[in-house]
TrEMBL record:
GO molecular function: ATP binding; ATP hydrolysis activity
Lineage: Bacteria, Pseudomonadati, Pseudomonadota, Alphaproteobacteria, Hyphomicrobiales
Name by which UniProt lists this protein: Ribose transport system ATP-binding protein
Domain ABC transporter intervals: 20-258, 258-494
Domain of life the protein comes from: Bacteria
Keywords from the UniProt entry: ATP-binding, Membrane, Nucleotide-binding, Repeat, Sugar transport, Transport
Family membership: Belongs to the ABC transporter superfamily.
Length: 496
């Protein structure tokens, strides 16, 4: 910690080079200390990696730097100037932010969203200008993307929305961005898109820009950041050059215990048992799908190639719409938590228990004691960080909200659980616990169908189906589930 302080002081001496410097920042929300004296400085030409457990205070410090939140104590200095405050000051000093919960207007086109962010776009042909600028930036960052910038944002997949928001943020219209803060920028991107973004970040930094990269995917932090800051309970507890860290030491600094991932696979109730569910080849193309009792099945391939549609088809085919109260055979963890996962006006407990109410109700009367016990049980099991489960769901950090959605599905007695990239923004310590729960539940005959954009998660599955252009193009089993095989199937025939 002493070393961390020394580093910070040296950088402050560098004065004008600091794009932003935050000192002794304290922010509380009621009894919760979100920031408890956090210090952070970002210099031009460096990529800072910011890591920490869910609820450590990363998004809150971003909001302070971005000028959207006034700290209760402490000061923020932009390019050595401590006399200015707020969003306009931050923007004038070139601070830009891509938020964890994407913030584009869904009813506007990509081009119209450009106009909302870049007020410098004006004049009779602003649409043409905006289209050219954002298209060029998308081409530069995500070469080969297929995004039509004239489309309404609400029609885009979550991965495409993330790409658009990133591209819009990096665009220079009049003023050039000096510090771009990326809060979980790859949470919905597959490995290929994430690698494209990381390559762009490196080139942006080499050209003198600064980036603050927040991610729970520690590999991308280690390979991209020049300096890494670790946050814990509202403070920066380590601040060192990236080469001084390994995944192991980062996890330790975050306060989690590194556990070996159990990669042994159970393989369901044996290849010989009859499928629990099956679907024919999608649109008459590619392979059909089946799942057996107790299997963990991965849906792999490039993001947005039909995996979510498949989960929705499975849900439709297994739900009884004509008997809305009786859908106990299937649970679903939604991928886009703010769009169709959380009930924003409800408490954390209600968000968790909603899918299990029928299990502890008699004659339509809910047993509140059992509901409270359910909440307390899951709060402890996956460390939902809150003083009380009676607080509103939006009082939780993004990763903690995601844990509640996961617990909602797992708490049911549904034998089949569908999961649409369910670990978005969940910290590494909790992920390991969740993998263990999944493995135990599958051993007691529950079936999981799991779309994931992370290869490390697909590798944990018993079988994986690789998707391409809406169809299943390959089925991989056990040890054949490798990144190489998934990529080969994802691109097979391309360019032929
Ligand atoms: N609007 C709010 N009301 C009440 N508490 C809040 C609010 N916003 C954040 N908090 C609390 O502040 C703490 C820090 O949250 P923050 O979102 O900064 O964490 P984080 O490190 O970004 O987590 P994650 O990795 O899950 O995104 C958490 O305990 C969170 O519950």
């Amino acid at each position: 910690m002493i070393a961390a302080k020394d580093n910070t002081l040296k950088r402050q001496d560098a004065g004008p080079q600091a794009v932003v410097s935050a000192r002794g920042i304290k922010v509380h929300f009621g009894a919760v200390k979100a920031l408890d004296g956090a210090d952070l400085t970002v210099l031009a030409g460096e990529c800072i990696g910011l890591v920490g457990h869910n609820g450590a205070g990363k998004s809150t410090i971003v909001n302070v730097i971005n000028g959207g939140l006034s700290p209760h104590e402490g000061s923020v200095t932009y390019e050595g100037d401590d006399s200015v405050h707020g969003i306009n000051a931050a923007r004038a000093h070139g601070i830009r932010c891509v938020f964890q919960e994407l913030s584009l207007a869904p009813n506007l086109t990509v081009v119209e969203n450009m106009r909302v962010v870049h007020r410098g776009l004006a004049g009779w042909n602003w649409r043409r200008q905006a289209a050219a600028i954002v298209r060029a930036k998308l081409d530069e960052i995500f070469a080969g993307h297929r995004i039509d910038v004239m489309r309404t944002v609400g029609e885009l997949s979550i991965a495409e929305r993330q790409m658009v928001e990133i591209a819009i943020t990096f665009c220079a219209v009049g003023e050039t961005p000096k510090l771009v803060i990326l809060d979980e920028p790859t949470s919905s991107l597959d490995a290929g898109l994430a690698a494209q973004l990381m390559a762009y970040v490196r080139s942006f930094v080499q050209a003198g820009g600064a980036v603050m990269l927040i991610s729970h995917i520690l590999g991308e932090i280690l390979s991209t950041a020049s300096r890494i800051l670790v946050m814990k309970d509202g403070r920066v507890v380590a601040d060192r050059i990236a080469q001084d860290f390994t995944v192991h030491s980062l996890v330790l600094a975050m306060g989690s215990v590194v556990k070996e991932q159990d990669r042994s696979r159970r393989g369901g109730e044996g290849a010989a048992s009859s499928p629990l569910l099956a679907l024919p080849a999608r649109g008459g193309r590619g392979l059909g799908f089946n799942a057996r009792k107790g299997e963990v099945i991965g849906l792999a391939g490039l993001a947005g190639h039909g995996q979510t549609d498949m989960l929705l088809d499975l849900h439709r085919s297994l739900s009884h719409n004509w008997l809305p109260g009786r859908q106990g055979n299937i649970a679903f963890v939604a991928g886009d938590r703010s769009l169709n996962g959380t009930f924003p006006l409800w408490s954390i407990l209600k968000n968790l228990s909603i899918a299990s109410l029928s299990d502890f109700s008699r004659l339509s009367v809910v047993d509140r004691g059992r509901e409270d016990r359910l909440g307390a049980d899951w709060k402890g099991r996956i460390e939902i960080r809150t003083p009380t489960m009676a607080n509103g769901i939006l009082s939780l950090s993004g990763g903690n909200q995601q844990k509640v959605l996961f617990a909602r599905a797992l708490a049911t007695t549904a034998p089949i659980v569908l999961m649409d990239d369910p670990m978005r923004g969940v910290d590494i310590g909790t992920k390991q616990e969740v993998y263990r729960i999944l493995s135990d539940e599958a051993s007691s005959s529950r079936t999981f169908i799991w779309y994931s954009t992370e290869m490390d998660e697909i590798r944990l599955c018993d079988r994986a189906y690789v998707f391409r252009d809406g169809a299943i193009v390959a089925e991989l089993v056990g040890e054949d589930i490798t990144e190489e095989n998934v990529l080969a199937a994802s691109f097979a025939g391309e360019g032929a």
